[in-house]
Structures are given as C-alpha cells and as structure tokens.
C-alpha cells in the first residue's frame, strides 16, 4: 500500500500509516494524532518547548518588528513583531536523512 502522493504525505495518509503500524483503527489513530498536535500547540501557546528525544524540538521564536517594502509600490510598511513556531531536528533525525 503506497502512503505517499506526489512526494509528500498528507494527514489522511499519515493516519492510515499510523493505524497500520500500531494495529489501531483509523479512528483511534486519528484521535491519537489529533491529541499529539493539540498538546504541542498548547505547549507552544504557553511559550514552552516540546522536545521529542531522537526526533527534534518544537520551539517558539520571536520575530522583531521591522520595516518592509511593498514589492508592487515600493512603499515602506511596518511589520509587527510576532511569535513563530520553529522545528529543530534532532541528531537521530539528521543522521537518518544523511544515510
């Protein structure tokens, strides 16, 4: 059974693969994935990092306010400071991709 379409895996395909690998139903696999995503989101909203040993870390970074240019008009616009999620891959993931 192929799980990838056009060189990427979407959420539905990820749920199907998770269900197959864990002997969970697709409904259970979806609930588990949704729980993981929700937990990571909640922790990031609180400014906390989520570290998954061997995989990587999800962290929140601050982007400073800056002045940018509208490419169409050349007009200067102010871009407000913002928080942005970042993923830092762990060594084991980097090593797996290098192989």
From TrEMBL:
<protein>
    <submittedName>
        <fullName>HU family DNA-binding protein</fullName>
    </submittedName>
</protein>
<dbReference type="InterPro" id="IPR010992">
    <property type="entry name" value="IHF-like_DNA-bd_dom_sf"/>
</dbReference>
<dbReference type="GO" id="GO:0003677">
    <property type="term" value="F:DNA binding"/>
</dbReference>
<dbReference type="InterPro" id="IPR000119">
    <property type="entry name" value="Hist_DNA-bd"/>
</dbReference>
<dbReference type="Pfam" id="PF00216">
    <property type="entry name" value="Bac_DNA_binding"/>
</dbReference>
<keyword id="KW-0226">DNA condensation</keyword>
<dbReference type="InterPro" id="IPR020816">
    <property type="entry name" value="Histone-like_DNA-bd_CS"/>
</dbReference>
<keyword id="KW-0238">DNA-binding</keyword>
<comment type="similarity">
    <text>Belongs to the bacterial histone-like protein family.</text>
</comment>
